């Protein structure tokens, strides 16, 4: 992996990706933040050496470099998932690349289903903790100690100072926001009624198919992490209706302006 990372990072530096301070991963239906970036460089994933390629139709598949709220940022416009057939090493490879480029903080967004029925579609949840149900670890490979400590502490995987800042930003901007536990499953199928009951029993407030692998690697690399879930559907096992992916995208779009405000105002304070 060292040679792969070197080749990828050298390629991006030669393209002008110089010393970003903040990495951003944009989730399903949450690509409009890119319109707030003063773009200096952008490269399609399929042009970057050793990079996976996004296969989900509503993920753009570009790495973007520029300025946002006075800081240099590198933005993943589209992410990778285990359900696309990628390994956990593939899914998290971009986080290692961004860290090698120079980021100190990682901001992550995703679309998630609300397990806590006090949460409503179109609202935002700050991820305060997570449950890894993806069946593996992105750190479970030979030679992981070359990149950081093998046994990574996960007592506080999401930076509490960043969470407090976002809570204040939400209050100052009259944005309703929740805080809770995100469960990450493999997908791509949605959950059954029994699975939703199980997730509630084990302490999940929201469920999705991403984020946790990237957060584990970010902690391995000593990056500060903040993650926001846009709640796109309500997972009520007693009143479960067939999923409508178009409605999920619409709910993500509804909440996106608030997410953009939270990210922009937070970046100003980093």
TrEMBL record:
<dbReference type="InterPro" id="IPR011268">
    <property type="entry name" value="Purine_phosphorylase"/>
</dbReference>
<feature type="domain" description="Nucleoside phosphorylase">
    <location>
        <begin position="22"/>
        <end position="268"/>
    </location>
</feature>
<dbReference type="Pfam" id="PF01048">
    <property type="entry name" value="PNP_UDP_1"/>
</dbReference>
<keyword id="KW-0328">Glycosyltransferase</keyword>
<comment type="similarity">
    <text>Belongs to the PNP/MTAP phosphorylase family.</text>
</comment>
<dbReference type="GO" id="GO:0005737">
    <property type="term" value="C:cytoplasm"/>
</dbReference>
<comment type="function">
    <text>The purine nucleoside phosphorylases catalyze the phosphorolytic breakdown of the N-glycosidic bond in the beta-(deoxy)ribonucleoside molecules, with the formation of the corresponding free purine bases and pentose-1-phosphate.</text>
</comment>
<protein>
    <recommendedName>
        <fullName>Purine nucleoside phosphorylase</fullName>
        <ecNumber>2.4.2.1</ecNumber>
    </recommendedName>
</protein>
<dbReference type="InterPro" id="IPR011270">
    <property type="entry name" value="Pur_Nuc_Pase_Ino/Guo-sp"/>
</dbReference>
<dbReference type="GO" id="GO:0009116">
    <property type="term" value="P:nucleoside metabolic process"/>
</dbReference>
<dbReference type="InterPro" id="IPR035994">
    <property type="entry name" value="Nucleoside_phosphorylase_sf"/>
</dbReference>
<keyword id="KW-0808">Transferase</keyword>
<comment type="pathway">
    <text>Purine metabolism; purine nucleoside salvage.</text>
</comment>
<dbReference type="InterPro" id="IPR000845">
    <property type="entry name" value="Nucleoside_phosphorylase_d"/>
</dbReference>
<dbReference type="GO" id="GO:0004731">
    <property type="term" value="F:purine-nucleoside phosphorylase activity"/>
</dbReference>
């Amino acid at each position: 992996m060292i040679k792969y990372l070197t080749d990828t990072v050298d390629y991006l530096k030669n393209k002008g990706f110089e010393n970003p301070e903040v990495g951003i991963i944009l989730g399903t239906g949450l690509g409009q933040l890119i319109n707030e970036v003063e773009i200096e460089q952008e490269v399609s994933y399929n042009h970057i050496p050793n990079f996976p390629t996004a296969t989900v139709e509503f993920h753009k598949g570009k790495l973007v470099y520029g300025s946002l709220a006075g800081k240099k940022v590198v933005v993943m416009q589209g992410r990778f998932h285990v359900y696309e057939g990628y390994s956990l090493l593939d899914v998290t490879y971009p986080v290692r690349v961004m860290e090698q480029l120079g980021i100190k903080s990682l901001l992550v967004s995703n679309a998630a289903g609300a397990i806590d029925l006090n949460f409503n579609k179109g609202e935002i949840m700050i991820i305060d903790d997570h449950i890894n149900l993806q069946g593996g670890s992105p750190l479970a490979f030979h030679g992981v100690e070359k990149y950081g400590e093998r046994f990574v502490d996960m007592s506080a995987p999401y930076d509490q100072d960043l969470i407090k800042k976002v809570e204040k930003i939400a209050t100052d901007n009259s944005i309703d926001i929740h805080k809770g536990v995100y469960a990450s499953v493999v997908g791509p199928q949605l959950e059954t009624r029994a699975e939703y009951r199980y997730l509630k029993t084990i302490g999940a407030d929201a469920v999705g198919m991403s984020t946790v692998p990237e957060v584990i690697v970010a902690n391995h690399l000593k990056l500060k992490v903040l993650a926001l879930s846009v709640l796109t559907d309500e997972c009520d096992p007693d009143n479960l209706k067939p999923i409508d992916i178009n409605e999920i995208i619409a709910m993500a779009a509804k909440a996106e302006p608030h997410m953009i405000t939270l990210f922009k105002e937070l970046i100003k304070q980093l």
